[in-house]
Amino acid sequence: MKKVLAFDFGASSGRAILGIFDGEKIELQEVHRFSNDPVKINGTVYWDVQRLFFEIKQGILKAKEAGGFDSIGIDTWGVDFGLLRKDGTLVENPVHYRDARNDGMVEKATKYMSKERMYDITGIQFMDFNTIFQLLSLKENRPYILEEADKLLFMPDLLNYMLSGVKSTEYSIATTSQMVDLKTNDWSEEILDTFGINKNLLTDIAPTGAVIGQLSDEICEELGVPKADIVSVAAHDTQSAITATPCEFDDFAFISCGTWSLFGTEVKEPIINEASKKLNVTNEGGYDYTTAFLKNICGLWLIQESRRQWIREGTEYSYAELEKLALECEPFKCFIDPDAPEFAPMGNLPRRVKEYCEKTGQYVPQTVGEIIRCIYESLALKYRYTFDGIKECTGKDYDRIHVMGGGTKDKLLLQMTAQSCNVKVFGGPIEATALGNVAIQLMSTGAIKDIKEARKIIAKGENLKLYEPVDNADWEKAYEDFKNIINK
Fold first, then answer.
1. Are residues 260 and 301 in contact, defined by beta-carbon separation less than 8 angstroms?
2. How far apart are CA 93 and CA 307, in angstroms?
């Protein structure tokens, strides 16, 4: 019997989960759940990292009460980071990737290096909040922050440091920065030099699954727990989820579905060609130096932020109620591009949906149900658009899509995805990120041989739900209309 402790942080909540492996199956036991609430102060949105570390301690205490553990692994969202002084204290709280400081930074970056050259080096999708652009914003607007900093640690690495005192950077999370050369799997000196980033600000990159240290004496004494290894799991939550794909085939398509939808496939080597540049696909590092060839799509954030707006206005719809209202509405009346820049910031998203439809000469949704239906259909059609692009880039076809993560609870979206993409969709596991985190810890100790064995164990233990396409003709017509709208 092997027990490991996984901390899985999303953009709105976090969890501590015990992974229990008996040699045949992995059982997950949630011991602690907590909210992750960004804090806006004087116009800047921060992560409350001190509070998050408090919750990690609570999770460790509860895991101790539940029987203990041998190791700890932490995964979070990508790109964001904390800056440490030489004495190990934070210069300031980490800034949220949706903060306005990132607006327009991709365009400013082209004054330093062409997008084509950056993509040739990193293979990473251009998004305003990638770490390199956040650092450029600091250089141009708050250079004194960087002058005070000695080391940069990404969010999971920062939390690992707080537990162990070890400053290290995990491979998958490093690649989200758009500062890693995928030919060397190390920091790109060309990019760092061009943008004036001091390489001494960065630590060495640890391979995914490495044991980087142990719980510090201070933490062990404070919490009354024995020493435990700190494993540098696939620290980017997307890569943890991909590790847990319940598929025994080498070629598969996946969607890691949550606040963001990460649509792609796993390949042995990065794919950097004209088609991938045009689609703006990312080549993100994964376990055993594989590459997740994927596209970031603004996912259930659109539903979540719309719901928050209606709550602010005085009506608290459940997600089930929103789905019911959507199903009552006429299909295919209007579409949005989920990745249009106006949908990225926090705030009144339903109003922006209406404005987008009006601006593009479409029917303007009037009711809650019409807005939600528009979002659902647009997401499913953007999946199709991305799926076609992935197939063009890889030169391969895929007869199924594995949808993993919290979004698998959204049956309407998964059925629409099957309809839109015209392939079978398998939903599950819901807890893909935690399972991948746990599996990598187990592989690091030899309890599980390799990733193929891990995926076989996960597939055997999951009851996947199948969604099949039916009556696809209406979706084909809608897809042509959708492409015309987003390509205007």
1. yes
2. 28
Give 123-148 as a DSSP string: -----TTSHHHHHHHHHHH-HHHHHH
| Look-up of token digits 């439809």 | 357
pLDDT score at 126: 96
Which amino acid type is present at position 429? P
Q: Indicate which residue of 8, 237, 337, 410 is catalytic.
A: 237
* DSSP secondary structure string for all residues of 56-75: HHHHHHHHHHTT--SEEEEE
Phi and psi at residue 463, to the nearest 5°: -100, 90
CB-count exposure of residue 193 (10 Å: 0-12, 13-18, 19+): exposed
Each residue of 141-193: pLDDT tens digit? 999 999 999 999 999 999 999 999 999 999 999 999 999 999 999 999 999 99
Tokens of residue 450, six digits:
């390799």
Cα 332 → chain centroid: 29
Note the pTM of the prediction, 2 decimals: 0.91
Cα 224 from Cα 218, distance rounded (Å): 10
Lookup: tokens for 139: 């250089």
Q: Which residues are within 8 A (CB) of 286 and not within 5 positions of it... i.e. 6 or more apart?
A: 172, 208, 234, 239, 242, 243, 266, 292
DSSP state of 258: S
Is 268 exposed, middle or buried (CB count within 10 Å of its CB: 0-12, 13-18, 19+)?
Answer: exposed
* Tokens coding 273: 């060609």
pLDDT in tens, 400-431: 999 999 899 999 999 999 999 999 999 999 99
Distance in angstroms between the alpha carbons of the first and the last residue of the chain: 57
Residues in the chain: 488
In the DSSP assignment, the letter for residue 407 is G
Taken in order 183, 188, 191, 194, the sign of the CA dihedral is negative
Q: Which pLDDT score, from 0 to 100, does residue 226 have?
A: 97
Kindly report, residue by residue over 114-130, the tens digit of the pLDDT. 999 999 999 999 999 99
Percent of the chain with pLDDT over 70: 100
Among candidate residues 345, 257, 338, the one with its CA nearest the CA of residue 10: 257
With contact defined as beta carbons under 8 Å apart, do 231 and 164 qualify? no
Q: Is 339 a catalytic residue?
A: no
Q: Where are the alpha helices (DSSP H) in 170-312?
A: 171-175, 189-195, 217-223, 237-243, 274-279, 301-312
Query: Taking all residues of the chain, what is their mean pLDDT, rounded to a whole number?
Result: 96
Is 413 within 8 Å of 267 (Cβ atoms)? no
DSSP state of 341: G
